[in-house]
Design a protein that fits this description.
The structure is a homodimer. By secondary structure, chain A is an alpha/beta fold. Chain A contains 17 helices and 17 strands. In chain A, strand 15 and strand 16 form a beta hairpin.
């Protein structure tokens, strides 16, 4: 068979994948296994539908869903008592959550914050939604209005939807989370960085902190705005309303308070929605890691701000679970708690660091993308499970849609990478419907995992594969790349990438969505407005400035 | 205070340490903490004595002790379900042992087999007993008769003493384990290496295996004995009797059988001694890691001989614990199961590899010396404990002596490094009596751990300390050596080493004990005898040849 014939067959096959107009177009690799297990999965799905229907009868509504996702952690940093000891701090509540539910040892994320969070919201690889780059201020970019989020889908199907914490989906109006399906959103448009500096005024007065020293050469400076200062970060808004900056300009003092406010908001949200007729979906993505902890507040053996942050996170999660039990809604509430990507290596050793795997945030090795993750749903998810099934952050989108009986609202005009993992949650180890993951860093396909094997695409050389293969069981830290035992895998992985790329040509990736920073903020500060105007004037094209205007993507 | 005055004070202090003629002379660092906690420990010891006496009344004898010690493993390779998943094999029995007893996360060993095993037997740093070098055939060296082993001590106090497995204490007669206190010993004099080759005859016939290829340049070879071939390894003997080679010349086929025979011997030993009037001490140090496993026998997800070995070890340990329960003696039997040192890195990725820490066998980083370890004693050791107290393999000597009511038989003419850790076993986390460890590789003091801090002595430079310090909680993999935050520790560690070295000058280390290989073997093969003679003729000094003859060191 020559190449063009191969391609024709492949395209035919891809055509067959999206058979009906109303069927979800999955990534071709999932479609390939779906075709192998069609009958088996159909039967299992029938049983699951019955189980979910019985639960609905019992509780009078579909299940509540709480998705807790924190920053930058390695598998092993929480949830395993032996590793607590090794690391010098304790996370008893998360450990208990693991004992009472399901601990994942192969939960994959994207390798950085913005992409991982976009993946959770859209169920799509960040490279498909144009959200593959970590946003920093002032960016003038963000999540496109036409991306369909899990909040939009569940909201359209009757859920109350709330967001509290770190959004990091961009500083353009269409990306604001109250414009992306959340009834209520208290969200940051960037990461924690803006909090780590002082306000513009304090900065101008010459104040200094570790992250942003303000004494610099003034004598030889022409462009005094090269270093941007007038950041806006935390916004609050309700669906259909106007965003307002929350708690004023970001600075360390605000940051400390904000984390406590968000924990309180989370508990209040749960309490207020517990007895409602409709279920709720709450994304609590806490700003995490408090580098401003005072020495006298340190309690753990490891006297670092990171250890302090982990213990605080643990207490916070413990409070959420305890509240669900107090309100007697724990048997109708799925809680997923996880990190968004691997440790930010640059902050080690006082911050997060590698624990089991090699690799860190931004990295395509396991350490960059394989995170601690737990599922808790007493009475539904069996207790004391450790599952090594592959699952990814994208899968949560499709799984939450299934649990909310809203699969029919998932868009069918684009590729969805998220796989429905309800069977894994309900039926346990071995029931995952995923056996692969294409790992992108930025918009580069850097590695592909299939089953226990991994291929490092960066090790390609023309015409011959090199020591690009790893068996992740044999070589957990990816130290011993090998070739000879994997010659069978050369073409197997080549074909896998070919399928992936061909499908991507048919359903092209969305370019980065650009626009005017800070539009739609009711109480925008003057200095921030000027920073935005500078970007518009010198950087944005006419198309960028007019914006790629939002249009509702799910009929509501 | 000038240097000589400091030294005088130090010597006075050291003199004070061994006050009574009959008191154990501990390493000065332990003595220093002992002086700080004198009253508290005395009170706790009184309570422990009462508890042990009550146990004796209940069971009619002192407790049995089983010390299982296998080869070359990293902390995390067994006992933690999440890491089982990551590594692709299961150790359910050891995991259960951990759940039902105490898991140690800071059990330190010496960094290699011979030293660790000598340390367990003598309670002394291997550098003190001259056992700091890993023995390979034909060595002509081994454990000196004047070293006092835990088997000698317990035997003298009425215990039955048995040894099954890998001894690795040398090929000279005085080192044979039936001459070192064991009533019965089935022991190897080296490690597994001799099994990995073929017999001399097969070798001469040109056979080849992965570890010892026998086709080499014959044309240019003068000395045809440069590569020794006639190995003897596994011996069997009873106290007072003559050793015999067990199961014939070592080769892969024998090796496979031998491991199964040893497991059976262990179970038989326990069964035969269960109802005796006297308690038993059994060292079961299994030959481990079966590189000859057939593909069809592989059962784990990680299809390596190492994964197979771990699962086999797990089943074997499970059988031992089950038997104790079947015989109803589990409440009067302490079982310690642990590895002897870190992973043999050179065998990765198909063999053991680093899991949590950096470092491997022979290495002074944590990975070389911090091993999986568990204590199990239903009804006495509380279940489900994870303790991060420091404990070392040397401590088992003193602890076992205490449990056997034989502390008075511990020699008082030499330094004992082992600390009595009965309080930790019985009273749980925080009760360790050790907060330091001097880590030797060979006879080099390479690093010192005190509390959570570690100093790397190999990073010394004249006159100023460098980035030689690590906080093991912050930096589990010892990647970020640092100086400024540890300036307080420069002298604190200097003084610690000074104390240690000064005491060592007062109680000098024993030189390596050399002698004629294979003496005292009843059925010595002719080819092995000739290999021994060659070594005697060309290598041993007159003193070596006459031997440093054994004299009984504990009156029996």
């Amino acid at each position: 068979m020559n190449i063009s014939r191969q391609l024709a067959v492949l395209l035919l096959f891809l055509g067959a994948c999206d058979a009906g107009a109303n069927e979800i177009i999955y990534d071709v690799e999932h479609q390939l296994t779906k075709d192998q297990y069609r009958d088996q999965w159909r039967e299992e799905d029938g049983q699951i539908d019955q189980a979910l229907e019985a639960l609905k009868q019992k509780h009078g509504k579909r299940p509540n869903i709480i998705h807790i996702m924190w920053d930058d952690a390695s598998l092993g940093e929480v949830g395993i008592p032996e590793l607590n000891k090794v690391l010098g701090y304790d996370t008893p509540h998360i450990n208990k959550m693991a004992d009472e539910g399901m601990a994942f040892t192969r939960m994959y994320t994207e390798p950085s914050c913005t992409p991982s969070r976009a993946a959770a919201l859209t169920g799509r690889l960040a490279v498909r939604s144009g959200m593959f780059k970590v946003g920093f201020p002032p960016e003038g970019a963000g999540l496109h209005a036409d991306e369909v989020t899990i909040a939009e889908i569940l909201s359209a199907n009757g859920y109350a939807t709330g967001f509290v914490g770190k959004g990091h989906q961009g500083d353009i109006e269409q990306a604001y989370l109250h414009n992306q399906g959340f009834d209520y959103a208290n969200f940051s448009i960037y990461n924690q960085y803006p909090f780590m500096t002082w306000s513009a005024r304090a900065a101008m007065a010459g104040q200094v902190n570790g992250l942003m020293p303000f004494q610099w050469d003034k004598k030889h400076t022409l462009d005094k705005k090269f270093r941007p200062l007038a950041y806006v970060n935390q916004l609050e808004a309700r669906k259909g309303g106007t965003a307002k900056e929350f708690m004023g300009p970001p600075n360390p003092e605000n940051y400390k308070k904000l984390m406590r406010v968000h924990q309180k908001q989370t508990l209040d949200y749960v309490r207020e929605h517990a007895d409602n007729d409709v279920p709720f979906y709450l994304a609590y993505w806490p700003h995490m890691a408090d580098p401003f902890v005072k020495p006298e507040d340190l309690t753990s053996n490891a006297s670092t701000w990171y250890a302090y942050s982990m213990e605080q996170l643990d207490r916070d999660i413990g409070e959420v679970l305890a509240l669900l039990q107090e309100l007697d809604i724990e048997e109708n509430t799925l809680v997923i708690a996880m990190a968004d990507n691997g440790p930010m290596h640059e902050l080690a050793p006082n911050g997060p660091h590698e624990v089991i795997f090699a690799g860190y945030k931004s990295d395509y090795r396991e350490g960059g993308v394989r995170v601690p993750a737990f599922a808790w749903w007493p009475g539904v998810i069996e207790k004391d499970q450790v599952v090594n099934d592959m699952i990814t952050v994208h899968d949560l989108f499709t799984t939450f849609a299934r649990l909310g009986n809203a699969l029919s609202l998932v868009p069918t005009d684009r590729v969805i990478d998220g796989v429905d993992q309800t069977a894994l949650l309900l039926n346990g180890e071995g029931r995952s419907r995923r056996d692969y993951y294409h790992i992108y860093t930025g918009d580069v396909l850097a590695a592909t995992v299939k089953q226990q094997f991994k291929r490092d695409w960066t090790k390609e050389r023309p015409g011959l594969v090199t020591d690009a293969f790893t068996d992740l069981y044999r070589d957990t830290r990816e130290e011993y790349g090998d070739m000879p035992p994997y010659l069978w895998a050369w073409l197997a992985f080549d074909h896998m990438r070919e399928r992936h790329v061909t499908q991507m040509e048919k359903y092209p990736n969305r370019p980065v969505t650009r626009g005017v920073p800070y539009e739609g903020i009711g109480n925008l500060r003057h200095d921030a407005k000027r920073m935005s105007e500078r970007l518009v004037k010198y950087n944005l094209s006419a198309a960028d400035r007019n914006g790629d205007r939002p249009s509702p993507s799910v009929s509501e």
